[in-house]
Design brief:
Length: 188
């Protein structure tokens, strides 16, 4: 990924990346979502008017600034990410108020904005996919019934099934077991 060719496409040396025209690339997930939604406005993925577009932007910004970093601190240790030292309990404590915001919104709304799926739904559901599948068991989900219902509804729709597969919610949360450092790693 750190080849000169790849770095020309994405100087951050990360994924995702989308080529939008000859030699032109997008490499931030929010920008990619907005681009895809704007390519065919008839699908309504970016809302139906400027007010909805702005509300979608609001949720995308909230998701990238608040939800995503907190969720990544939760799942990071399971993925072996260096620097992911926050305990699962600490991450869950930070996540609770965010889930309360989401829960209050979804109690009153079927989707994030309007009456159909938008890129705000796609974005947030994508971030929630790992915890719903591997960390949030039935007991955890009891405190977020509207978010759970919304997530299950989305994941039962054909585009989501095609992308994520059939939804199986977590029955027993994964347990994190830290690997012990070898003598060489401790010396560094």
């Amino acid at each position: 990924m750190k080849t000169p060719e790849f770095l020309k496409k994405n100087p951050n040396a990360k994924f995702p990346i989308l080529e939008i025209s000859e030699g032109k690339y997008l490499y931030e997930s929010g920008a990619i979502l907005r681009y895809v939604a704007r390519v065919d406005k008839s699908k309504g993925l970016y809302g139906t008017n400027i007010a909805e577009e702005t509300q979608i932007d609001d949720w995308l910004d909230w998701s990238s600034r608040e939800l995503q970093p907190t969720l990544m601190s939760m799942v990071g240790p399971f993925l072996g990410w260096q620097g992911a030292t926050e305990s699962l309990k600490d991450a869950e404590k930070k996540l609770r108020p965010l889930l309360e915001i989401l829960e209050a919104h979804l109690k009153e709304n079927k989707y994030m904005i309007g009456d159909k799926v938008t890129i705000a739904d796609i974005n947030i559901a994508t971030y929630l996919s790992v915890p719903f599948r591997f960390l949030w068991d039935e007991k955890f989900r009891e405190v977020i019934p509207y978010t759970t219902k919304w997530f299950q509804d989305l994941m039962s729709q054909e585009p989501f099934v095609k992308e994520f597969g059939k939804l199986v919610l977590c029955q027993k949360p994964l347990e994190f077991v830290a690997l012990k450092k070898s003598k060489e790693e401790k010396k560094e």
